[in-house]
Amino acid sequence: MCDYCGCREQPIIVRFARDHEELMHRARIVATLRRHIEVEEHDIFPASLVYLGPEDWEVIESADPEASPS
């Protein structure tokens, strides 16, 4: 699209531009969430298996009753 003919003011183009902005915003949120999950799965959880002992896991599981399968 250009900046001189007024095409950006056409209702359908305005709507599509808004949709595009919303999709880009959601894509950034998804990318951030994906990075967060990858750090948990590949860094934090494996490290916790190495560094936390049985007593530590008991404390963690007792803090959240749903964390431990019954």
Could you characterize the architecture of this molecule?
The chain has one domain (7-64). Helix content is 73%, strand content 0%. It has two helices and no strands. The termini are far apart.
Which terms would index this structure?
single chain, 70 residues, mainly alpha, 73% helix
Concise summary:
The chain has 70 residues and is mainly alpha-helical. The protein is 73% helix and 0% strand.
What topology emerges from the helices and strands here?
Blueprint: H1 11-51, H2 54-63
Oligomer: single chain
Average pLDDT: 88
Spans where pLDDT lies below 50 across 5 or more residues = none
Beta strands, count: 0
Shape: rod-shaped
Structural class: mainly alpha
Cα-based radius of gyration, to the nearest Å:
23 Å
Order of helices and strands: HH
Helix count, per DSSP? 2
- Tell me the β content: under 5%
> Major β-sheet, in short?
none
Q: Could you tell me how far the N terminus lies from the C terminus, measured between alpha carbons in angstroms?
A: 60 Å
Helix content: over 70%
Number of domains as seen in the coordinates = 1
